[in-house]
């Protein structure tokens, strides 16, 4: 019985995605590409480059942040091949776990972290994942 490997490749220079299917008699592997994003002098740092995880295994994608003035809102977005990014998780409250479709994350204020986890990843989870933040100070400036 052959096991299918799925590989997602992202090229920053060309902005292209491509899938490659490979066959092997060993374990299934999931490759996840990560790109980090920041806003307005504040920043997020997340696991960079490809992350390979065996299908059915626990996946953890790290995200830490730095803000200048205030408590941020943190987000995880997912972008599948040829699709627009979609909101996966958001946290507006520190130390509260948020969950959606098997993914979970907790905004830990003391560590400035918002790590994404999924207990049993599947090949369908192959995607580009973005950690993003929004400074709540900007929220107050919009009404001025």
UniProtKB/TrEMBL annotation:
InterPro entries given in the database record: Ig-like_dom, Ig-like_dom_sf, Ig-like_fold, Ig_V-set, TCR_variable_region
Coiled coil: none
UniProt entry tagged with the keyword Nucleotidyltransferase: no
Name of one Pfam family that matches: V-set
Domain Ig-like: 42-144
GO cellular component: T cell receptor complex
Glycosyltransferase found in the keyword field: no
Keywords, comma-separated and alphabetical: Adaptive immunity, Immunity, Immunoglobulin domain, Receptor, Signal, T cell receptor
A GO BP annotation: adaptive immune response
Stored PANTHER family: T CELL RECEPTOR ALPHA VARIABLE 18 (PTHR19367:SF42), T-CELL RECEPTOR ALPHA CHAIN V REGION (PTHR19367)
Name of the protein this chain belongs to: Ig-like domain-containing protein
């Amino acid at each position: 019985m052959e096991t299918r490997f799925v590989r997602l490749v992202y090229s920053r220079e060309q902005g292209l995605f491509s899938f490659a299917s490979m066959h092997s008699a060993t374990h299934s592997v999931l490759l996840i590409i990560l790109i980090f994003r920041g806003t307005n002098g504040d920043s997020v740092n997340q696991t960079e480059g490809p992350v390979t995880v065996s299908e059915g295994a626990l996946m953890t994608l790290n995200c830490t942040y730095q803000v200048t003035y205030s408590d941020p809102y943190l987000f995880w977005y997912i972008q599948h091949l040829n699709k627009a990014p979609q909101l996966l998780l958001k946290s507006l409250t520190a130390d509260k776990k948020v969950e959606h479709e098997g993914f979970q994350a907790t905004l830990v204020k003391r560590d400035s972290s918002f790590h994404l986890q999924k207990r049993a990843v599947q090949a369908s989870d192959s995607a580009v994942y973005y950690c993003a933040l929004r400074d709540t100070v900007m929220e107050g400036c919009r009404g001025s």
